[in-house]
Amino acid sequence: MLTKRIIPCLDIKNGRTVKGVNFVDLRDAGDPVELAAAYAEKGADELVFLDISATEEKRKTLAKLVLDVAEQLNIPFTVGGGISSVEDVDILLKNGADKVSINSSAVKNPDLINQLSEKFGSQCVVVAIDAKYIDGNWKVHLVGGKVPTDLDLFEWAREVEQRGAGEILFTSMDHDGTKNGFANEALSKLSEELNIPIIASGGAGKIEHFTDTFQKGKADAALAASVFHFKEIEITDLKKQLRTLGIPVRL
Q1: Is 130 an active-site residue?
Q2: Dist. CA 194–CA 184, nearest whole Å
Q3: The pTM is what?
């Protein structure tokens, strides 16, 4: 059985790690290079770095900061934010990223998924999907959750897989930062409909939420930010608890 992964996320704005609730009210959460080093040491399985204002500000991801973070890591490293071309990905991989995460650019230009998976391999391509539950349907949102679309979460996820994405990072905007648990019903449906791994994001507040998203949501990995940044949950404690519950994790 494949081990379940625990993934801290560094949301980056102006070179600092930040964290908000429902994608707004951001507060400072520390230096990304220091946090990265600590997470690698504490047993994180992977690290995700999202330059959350790059798309909105129409600029590229901070390649130098990516390099500084990558130098601290001995675990897989995913980078996202402002990526819109094969050239952007080439730069980030040369600066130490192992995978890239695309979101708004994939919706605006779905062929980008095909291009990246053909050039770099599907294992390198993570498609992040931010969605909100509106009138009984999960609707995809872009530009850090600021721009709603008519795109259905599940239809888009199926297309993403067909185009060659190796993984999906699904964030429920309704759950993000609330610490009330992940969107397990939607996650479970994604897991049943797709053959690629699903990373759960949005809503982690206590250890039970991770247990639930692996057991009920059938997620392959769980991503969280503030509970790790502010030391509300220690990764080593979390993994030990998951292991005692029979959930396979790397200790």
Answers
A1: yes
A2: 15
A3: 0.93
